[in-house]
Amino acid sequence: MTNRKFYKTQVVVTVLSEEPINPNCNLEDLYYAITEGECSGVTEIMEPTELNGKEAANALLEQASDPEFFDIDENGDDLDHEETADELYDRKYREEMNQEPE
User: Fold this and answer.
1) 39: how many CB neighbours lie within 10 A of its CB?
2) Burial 59-71, CB ≥16 within 10 A → b, else e
């Protein structure tokens, strides 16, 4: 399993409105309704939960996403891949600047 750490953070949006919120609306719709529309809202960011590679892979699958999003497989192991030109540039730049990867 990868040694990298991953984090799961839940963001709760509470909306007050005069009409029910459409169950098919997305975050952009809610943002507009709260900031420009006729709704009041507040967000609460919950404490992040640290995940290991396997837990992150499972969480991605639960979201109908793919573990490859984080360059891991279903078991949480790092995928072997060649460094792209952008990744190489970023790594070299960080090394020159003595910075940690993001």
Assistant:
1) 16
2) bbeeeeeebeebe
| One-character DSSP codes across the chain | -----EEE--EEEEEE-SSPPPTT--HHHHHHHHHTSS-EEEEEEPPPEEE-HHHHHHHHHHTT--GGGGTB-TTSPBPP-PPPHHHHHHHHHHHHHT----
Residue pLDDT, tens place only, 3-29? 999 999 999 999 999 999 999 999 999
In angstroms, rounded to a whole number, what is the distance separating the alpha carbons of residues 23 and 88?
Answer: 43
User: What percentage of the chain carries pLDDT values higher than 70?
Assistant: 90
| Distances, alpha carbon 65 to alpha carbons 36, 68, 85, in Å | 31, 9, 25
CA–CA dist 49, 29 (Å, integer)? 27
Place of tokens 């999003």: 69
